[in-house]
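Objective 1b: paired records.
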Amino acid sequence: MHLRLDSAQALVGEIAQATATCRAQWGVAPVGLHLASLCDAGAFLGVQDLSDQRDDGACTGEISAQMAADAGAQFAIIGHSERRQRHGESSDRVALKAQAALDAGLLPVVCVGESLVERQRGQELAVVRAQLAPVLSMIGAGRLAEIVIAYEPVWAIGTGETASPEQAQAMHAAIRAELATVSEEAAQQVRLLYGGSMKPGNAQALLSQIDIDGGLVGGASLNAADFAAIVAAAS
């Protein structure tokens, strides 16, 4: 929940200019109310959340996947840790949202990740697998290659802490192995993003890992120069 409309427009314009020669794909997920106003900004646009309900109806405050697509969204962040923690979203609901996004022609960016306590207890793999299970069951092998998975260790979001490249790679490899239980071919096509305090200073080391295909960037995306540096590292 950052930036008024004029600031959002200025930021996206600065990012577009700074990344004009970069080969990596990049996108932004602004506040939903600003989405339509940014459609001509030259960015791959997404929403930060959407409803699991597909049909119009008595869902006050909700925005459906089709409404997001109508407003110009091309992707949707699904199951962000803040939605799971602060709004009690279950992995089953995340799966419904991912399916709704696919059906509306949006690219679902499905977030998974463990808390600090879960990592300290050695439960990180079990937690991430449990978060993935309903999504993989609902989507199946046929559409698996149409989603993106973002690993966001909750203990490294907005804290200044970052998983080491080795820790991040180990989890990304485990996620790809889990996807391969559904479809080995599709598992190699799914893009896996790292989403725990990626910054210009650590982007190259993280993105050089074999199973890390990009980043789900938080705070650094609010500064055009920082975000452009991460896009350049991805390029």
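Objective 1b, second protein:
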Amino acid sequence: MRLVFAGTPVTALPSLDAIAASAHELVGVVTRPASPQGRSARLVPSPVASWAHEHGVEVLAPEHPKDRDFRERLAVLAPDCCPVVAYGALLPQRTLDIPAHGWVNLHFSLLPAYRGAAPVQRAIMDGVRETGATTFQIVRELDAGPVYGSITESVARLDTAGELLDRLAVRGAQLLVETLDRIAEGAEAAPQPSDGLSYAAKLELDDVRIDWTRPSQELADLVRGANPEPGAWTMFHGERFRVLLAEPCDERVATGVIEARRREVLVGTGSAALRLLTVQPVGKKPMAGADWGRGARLSGGEAFE
């Protein structure tokens, strides 16, 4: 089949590599426009655009996929199908109708659970022990289209959202190619199950502020789900302090109070204490919690806000 791939971040690159190595013909990519980066606000193309430039593949980067010029160029490219991985914009019906076999999305959850922008982050924050990825036909309703296939993936005790997403991106790439192969052979998608529907809204900073009155396991899951972005945080001496990895322990410490020991830092929660494994004070690089505790020269009794 002739394919035009739609995606934007690094997460989409394993699928691009897999499609390029498949029997299908990649004739173009659709991605979000270049965005300002750093203090200079220099415009930088998306990872998908950079990949396409390096491989001599045409890049379409409309401000919005409803733009007429974009739709006309897509029609000229005449894709049979448009695979999608983390494109980042809603597709209007006129654009969805262009390829004969539609737009097929690789979504990083077991649909209908965790429809939306942050399925991996929200799943970890909810403490799930198994998630996965699903390929489905895109329709106007959010992540509600019929399903072609899925894979499952276990969530390890200390998995961060970044680590889990990396694994799903690689395994999901093969699922996406297998789905495209099946579509070329005439396969049809099946309706999504009606049970287990949930939504995974984009994480905002307020969503990941640490409330030390919550149980330690919930906070450990919050920290892992917010890593690497936007990063769970608390306040310390009037500045934002990020906690990147933590685990519950059996000891008790007063809520929010920091107990720095030679080999570990514990913080009190609404249940047992939380052991800080990796932290990032403002203006610093990530470091082991114990290293921060030794360097901070805590006098005892300090607490996170």
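DSSP finds eight helices and 15 strands in the chain. The chain has two domains: 2-184, 205-296.
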